[in-house]
# Entry
Amino acid sequence: MEKIRGIQVNKLNKSCENLEELSKEQLISQIKSLQAHNLQLKSILSKSLNRNEVSSPKKQKPFDFTKCSTRHILLKFFYLGWDYQGFATQENTNDTIEYHLFKALERTCLIKDRASSNYHRCGRTDKGVSSFGQVISITVRSKLSEDQMDKIEEEINYCQVLNRVLPKEIQCIAWRPVSEGFSARFDCKSRTYKYFFPMGKLNIENMRKASAYCLGTHDFRNLCKMDVGNGVVEFERTIVEVIIEPVLPNQSLDEYSMFVLTIKSGGFLWHQIRCMLGILFLVGQNKEPPEIIQELLNVEKNPCKPDYNMASEIPLNLYSADYILESDWYCEEENLTTVVEELRKMWTLNSIKSDMMRTMINDLSKELKQPNIKCLSESLIQGIRSKEYLPVMKRKKCDSLEKKIAHYLKRSRITIKDEEKTDL
# Structure
């Protein structure tokens, strides 16, 4: 769709050149052509927004929420975000995790609407990122009276009810009651992410040494994407755990062996983990020394972020969120069994595809007279790579935080002035 839109924009730009030289008939022809392109784009956008939509059910009598009691809960669920446009709801697409979640909540009459549901999310993940343990807090319908709220086993089976109408890539796994003021976001004590990658030819020990420099409290402005426009001007974060280990321990290793980086903190910056992995992969490829992390964390010496590519979003996973809770999560056995069985089906098909491709790789590689295969991790680093490698600290630098803030404030003042002129 983006490609088609780009073609249309190029046509528009060309059609707007030298308009004064065109005759009346030519101008009318141009306008008709642009109107046709506009209709085509509207049709494409409509199809995109309606993707994955289920046909609307027959109109039913509105559910009377005044006859029901409610309770505030934490809801834990997983999602495979590879084919979605991110977690948070967006205006230009329905293909987000949050859209499907609220659609399911409203369809099952667990909530009246989002605005009245006292909703908070643990965190938002970007396009392509998955989660094994996303948590939201929300006030939902209950079938119990106020004096029966402690009888959890008699409550609505929230996970099972939602999973029946959710896509198979988004499934609830547990819930638990909490006090009305409890927030999945603000009461979260720590978040753990995992990033999966193949060993390839990576120097794992150097990557471990480099990642250890991230432990503790540091200013990570050079290892994230600065989001000054949204008011983020503080970049100190505390990393309490960084581990790189094989996904399957105690097995012989080869270049196809999968490793996982586990990182834990009270909070992360925008693209922080993907930027860190972008540098760690360069360390693993022996293109940078482990001490490059120390250089990037020294913001007094290096106040400006050098230009480098961050790692792919596909292997990133919001693995868990930690809370101080008085009781355990409630997991219903039948629902959990169904979820695991569905995951096993997906694993089976994807593992077959993986081994088929690996067999093809091995067979074709035997025909190569002078094998010069790139490291597997190369495909996980985004962006254009130059033919000759230039060390990170010698590359072009971005503007400093202070310059970005000054630029944003200046732009904001210009916008305000323009709005004031419009009001006049």
